[in-house]
Structure formats: structure tokens, C-alpha cells
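Task 17 of the worksheet. Students: predict the tertiary structure of the chain below and write it out as C-alpha cells. Keep your answer in the requested format; marks are given for formatting as well as content.
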Amino acid sequence: MKKMIISGVTALALLTGGVVGVGGVGSSVEAAQATLKFKDVPSTHWAAGAINSAVEQGYFKGYTDGTFKPSSPVTKAEMASILGRLSDQPNASSPGINNFTDVPEWAKGGVSAAIQKGFINPTSYQGKLDAKASLKRGEMAIWLTQGLATVDLDYKQALSDVKNTVIPAKEYFTGNLATSQKNAVAVAMGTGLMSVYNDKMFGADRTTTRAEVAVLIARYGTVAKTKPSNYKGLNELRQVGLTGTNINIIAPKYKKTPENKVSPNVDYSEVTDDFTKVRNKNIITDTQHADLKIKNWIIVNTFAKGTERSIYYPVFVDEGFTLLRGAYYSFPELELNVKNNNMNRLQAGSLLNSATINPMNSPTSDAFAAYGGPVINDFTKNRGVFAVKNPVYWSRGLLHFDKEILSDVSLVSKEGPTYSVIATD
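Model answer:
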């Protein structure tokens, strides 16, 4: 894909005072110089380069007082007009019709173009875009990922694949991410198009600023010309969404356990390495203190660096921490149905007696605490005794590769087959 540029100009400013530049800014040199002179965009500003590029290409211009106002919000009408002028964005195969009744005259053409290019789906609204309202990040994620789905059908498939995934954002772990935005947020994060803030929040309800839009314009152009399969983070999110685990991506040496290595209490004729066969199923436990299900199972390699890291690394692991003897972290999300009034943590651990999937321990990293995910301590307030009947929390274990301590990971479901994998050479 060629570099995305504005395909035309319009005679009216998107907002009084020229918040968004749509009439051009002169030559590229003049635009670059103008950006460097913005009083409120020093060279050290986190988005200075993107702002410079966006102004140079004509997406934005500054105010007459010499400022850019990088923290000012962008309205839906403004953003739609910008997206509608991306010349290299293809048209959607079956675009909707601009039936919005609240779009100002100057923005009608831009909104129609954004619809034509697949960014906005009018059927998701009830006749009103709320065009003058500030665009929030959750809706921004929806617009941008719908645009990606128009560029490449595999992005459309990715939006479907991540329906049941684990999203590395605080809103997900605290249950505050809207279902309608979940898929888009996952794909936006999996491609690096958008990310969390320092407080680990994606900020779905936070307004999108001029500085952020400048950055997103550049990122969108890069992502749109990249195959979804080239993004490891997106691959993980898709795998977790489809299967419940990322083990095949992070620990591909773990494969179906050979018959001569499987645990003696497992019927090998029913063994599978397909985690979907046991995901959210009742697992046969060693003790009867509680019923147990595994909702998701995340593996993290603490030795991986840079782009080789799991997208879940910053969620579960503190920076610089590594495990001994080459082990990987195992983080299962468990759902228990406690059968008595005094089950304690030790008894929870006896349910599986597993070093890999251990219901007795939860992540203790500062990282996970910042994401606000539920842990066993949330439910065992009284001397380690569970205070609720149906806790859902993340547990912590180890996935071994050392041959001296290596064993299979086997889960026998009451409904059918056994999941069993082990590290192979």
C-alpha cells in the first residue's frame, strides 16, 4: 500500500478556528517548519514526529496563536472526514448508507466517504452519529479495525476469532470492557495500532486527542499494508480466542503426550492436544472439595525479549524477572464451584496436585496487580477459607522443559476426552 494521503481539500474548516486542516498547509517544508514552531509541541513531546508528519500531509494545521493543542479532543465528524480522505483505503464491498440526521453540512461528504471506505457502519447506530461529540477510544478502535477488515478479509476474520480472547487491558480483567468494543480493542492492540496507558487502561471511554489521531494516522497506514499473520500479538489473541490458550505459539515444543509418557490414570485412546476439548468443561479432580473449570490458559516465557515476548508478558510478569531452570509461567483462569463452607487454599491446591495448573497460587507480580485481575486472595479472606461459592480467578504454575522434572500436563474432562501435552525434543 502506498503512503496514505489526503485525497482532496474542502472549503470549510472542520471546526471554527481551524482545528483540523483540510485546505492544505502549503509546501511540505512550510508544513514541517510550522509544526516545529508550535508553542505547545516541543521536540520532546511524545507525538512530535507524528504531529509533524500529519501537518505536513495536511491532516491538521495549527491555531492562529501558534499552538497545536495536542491534548484537545477530536469530534466524530472530524475523524470521519479524515478517514474518508485516505486515498489508498479501498471501498467496502457493501457499504451502508449515510442516513445520519445530525451531521453538520460541512462533514456530510466526509462521513459518507468514511462509510464508503468501511470505517463506519451506519447499522450500528440509530440514525444519529452524535457527530459533534468527542470521539472516544473504544469507538475509534471499532472504526479503525472495520477499516482494516475492508483492506484485508483476514482482519475481518481476526475480529471474529478474538471474540472470546483474553485482552491485555485493565478494563478486561476488571470486567469493565463493553462487549460491543471487545473484538475491536483486541485487534487494535494485537496489531500495535493502539495500546494501554501507563495505568494499564485501554481507556475505551476516554476521548481521542489530536496528538493521538496524528499517531494513529501513521500507524494505520503501516498496519493496513501488513498481513495480520505477521503480528505475533494478534496471533496469540486469535489463538486464545479460538482455543483458550496460547501454548502452541509460546511453547510449541509442548505436543500431544506419547502413549509411553502419559500419566497411568489416563485412558490414552481418548487423549487430545486440542485444548478446546477441555476448555470450560468440568475437570475430574483428585479431591472433591470443588468442581473446577479452566476458562483460559496463558503461557509466558520470561526469557523472551523484544518482539519475541508474549503480548501477555507485561500483564503477568515484572520487567527483568526470569524463572529458574528454563521454566515458563503458566497462568490458568479457573472457575470453581466450592462444595462446602470451609474449603481452604490448601484444599484448592489438592484438586489437581499439579505444578502447572495449581489452584492454590495466583500471580503475585506488581504487573498483574496493576491490571487488577482477580486472584485467590480476593476470595479467601477468612484464614485462607473461601468466602464465596463460585470464585473465578487467575492461578499461577510452571511449565517445565528440564528433563529431570518434566511431566505431562493432563486434564481429564467429565464430558469426554483427555487433554495431555508434554515438552518434546
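Marker's comment: Residues 354 and 397 are 8 Å apart (CA to CA). The beta strands are 254-256, 271-272, 290-300, 328-338, 392-394, 397-399, 409-412, 418-423.
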